[in-house]
Every structure is written in structure tokens, then in C-alpha cells.
Amino acid sequence: MEKLKEFLKLHEKNRVYGFIAWLALHWIEEEGMTPEEMKKEIEITIEIYQTLTFDQPVWREINFLKDMRKQLD
Questions:
Q1: What three-state secondary structure class fits 70?
Q2: Is residue 41 over pLDDT 80?
Q3: pLDDT category of residue 57 using cuts at 50, 70 and 90
Q4: In angstroms, how far is CA 31 from the centroid of its own chain?
Q5: pTM for the full model?
Q6: Least confident stretch, 15-19, 40-44, 64-68
Q7: Under a CB-based contact definition with an 8 Å cutoff, are residues 65 and 42 in contact?
Q8: Do the beta carbons of residue 43 and residue 59 sit within 8 Å?
Q9: Distances (CA, A) of 69 to 4, 12, 35, 66, 73
Q10: Contact between 17 and 61 (Cβ < 8 Å)
Q11: What are the helix (H) ranges across 1-73?
Q12: What gap in Å lies between CA 51 and CA 17, rounded to an integer?
């Protein structure tokens, strides 16, 4: 989990990934989310993002979420 927290803190100020990173850090630090719960939330979020259609694809956000999941392995 520490590896994920470091990864998220690096991206917290990024305008694209900042909200995702901030929310994940909140879940970890304030809500005490476990790695298993975090993996589940990441998978749910990836599914949601894959169903969204915008003018611009949300692939960079999906890839960021996948990178988050890799930090937990």
C-alpha cells in the first residue's frame, strides 16, 4: 500500500489525474481502505470509465487506474 501511496502523491498535483489520486489517498488515509478494497474500487472505476463516451477518449485515465492497480501487486 505504501508503494501506491507514493505513486498517488506524485500524481496528486497533476491536472488530469489529480482528482483520482486525491480521492484514492483519501480512501486509504481517512477511510482506512485495505488493498483488496482498493483493487475492487479500481476495477469498478475502470469499468465505469470504459462505458463513458466523450469527445476525447478517457484512455489516459483508464491507464492511470491500471497503473494504480499495478502498484498494489
A1: helix
A2: yes
A3: low
A4: 15
A5: 0.78
A6: 15-19
A7: yes
A8: no
A9: 8, 16, 9, 5, 7
A10: yes
A11: 2-11, 18-29, 35-51, 59-72
A12: 18
